[in-house]
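ugh ok fine here u go
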Amino acid sequence: MNDRALDGYEISTDPVRLDADLVHYWLATDAYWAVDRPRELHDRAVAGSLNFGLYASGSGRQAGYARVVTDHATFAWLCDVYICRDDRGKGLGTALVEAIADHLTPCGLSRLTLATKDAHAVYEKIGFRALVAPEQWMTLGLIDPGPVEM
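structure:
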């Protein structure tokens, strides 16, 4: 993990520390994949996930968020990775995702997956790569609008 990037910040999975209003605001107003996400839907997603908060060490102010949908045995989906605009450019997103991978390593998962439209280089630094056999993957879009426009 990039401890230097986390200088002055800490990561926690304690649900009590999450600022649910702030996280919903960030995602529903500033994250292309979740713009206009209804609060009730957001709350259900958080309740069914392993949540990671990134906090300023001194004040406890929340500076980032990510969640993982996982069975803690075979598979995990990383989603809703967000760093507050005021805290970007410090390597915090990379450090947060590295910490998540470290947290999940003892589970012995076969894979940790994610989807991104524009941050491939960020995740590649951590070791993520494109699917080796994308033709083996399928999706059932129950309400899937298709690919997000650039």
